[in-house]
Amino acid sequence: MSVFRNLEARIEGLVEGVFSRAFSSEVQPVELARKLAKEMDSHKTASVSRVYVPNEYTVHLSEKDRDKLEGYERSLEQELSGYLLEHARRKGYDLLTRPEVHFNTDSRLRLGEFGIQARLVKPPAREGEMPSQADEGHTMVYKVAPQPPDDPTERPPERPSLTRAVVDLNERRYVLDGPRAVLGRSDDAECVLRDPNVSRRHAELRQDAAGQWEIFDLGSTNGVKVNGRRVTEAPLRAGDQVTIGTTTFRFGIER
């Protein structure tokens, strides 16, 4: 029995359509190319010394997806044909003819779904003779299983919106951008206080993971007071009066 008769005897096993949900919005050409190559890989058949693959592919699209190809459908068919030809060369497959890709509309499909039917078509032996091909066969439909709703307990906690600390003095106002800001007499401090009773690095304002602002004494000589009470560290709210050395400011928050 010749190679082609062997192929014809086994060709019915090659015909199978595969429906796949590509995107929830619409079918993308790159996804078509990947699935066409997958169908080629899935439908190869071996003879004595060669591996043959389908050379004719029908892509079934929903009406809305087909409409989106208007104006460049033929160009896309040729591009996908070239992609399959190159894929076959890379894999070492044999083709009876150059791969052909054609589009078809299937009203049963929804936007983002498509089907691929692969066939191995034998070219005519004589001019005028119709090419022989496999029976159309049936189309197997595949659906992506719906994803279960997210479990709220597994969601990462939402990060609080960051705010900016405000140091409001009588003669000037500092708005501090970072989650940390040093207050002191040093020129390197984020908030410079020209008070001889203030240490070079006197205290630090910090915003914790929950968005709460706090003040920390950095080992100053004259300490820190919040609303008249001496503290080494304390949470701050808008409107609190903070005393560093002999300088008192009003703490504020800007969003």
Give a written overview of the molecule.
The protein is α+β, with helices and mostly antiparallel strands and about 260 residues long. It has four helices and 18 strands. It has helices at about 5-10, 30-40, 65, 75-90; strands at about 15-20, 45, 50, 55-60, 100-105, 115-120, 140, 165-170, 175, 180-185, 190, 205, 215, 225, 230, 235, 240-245, 245-255. The chain has a six-stranded antiparallel β-sheet with strand order 9-8-18-17-14-15, with no helix packed on it. It has a five-stranded mixed β-sheet with strand order 5-4-6-1-7. It has a five-stranded mixed β-sheet with strand order 11-10-12-13-16, with no helix packed on it. Strand 14 (about 225) and strand 15 (about 230) form a beta hairpin. Helix 2 crosses helix 4 (about 75-90). The longest helix is centred in the N-terminal third of the chain and has 19 residues, at about 75-90. The radius of gyration is 36 Å and the shape is rod-shaped. Mean pLDDT is about 80; it is low at about 1-25 and about 130-145.
Please indicate the percent range of residues in DSSP E strands (runs of 2 or more): 25-35%
End-to-end CA span: 83 Å
Helix content: 10-25%
The general outline is rod-shaped
Radius of gyration: 36 Å
* Major beta sheet, strand line-up: 9-8-18-17-14-15
Please tally the helical runs, counting DSSP H or I stretches of 4 or more residues.
Answer: 4
Overall mean confidence score, pLDDT: 78
N-to-C order of helices and strands: HEHEEEHHEEEEEEEEEEEEEE
Low-confidence stretches: 1-24, 128-147
Strand runs, count: 18
Largest sheet: 6 strands, antiparallel
Judged by helices, strands and strand pairing, the structural class is alpha+beta
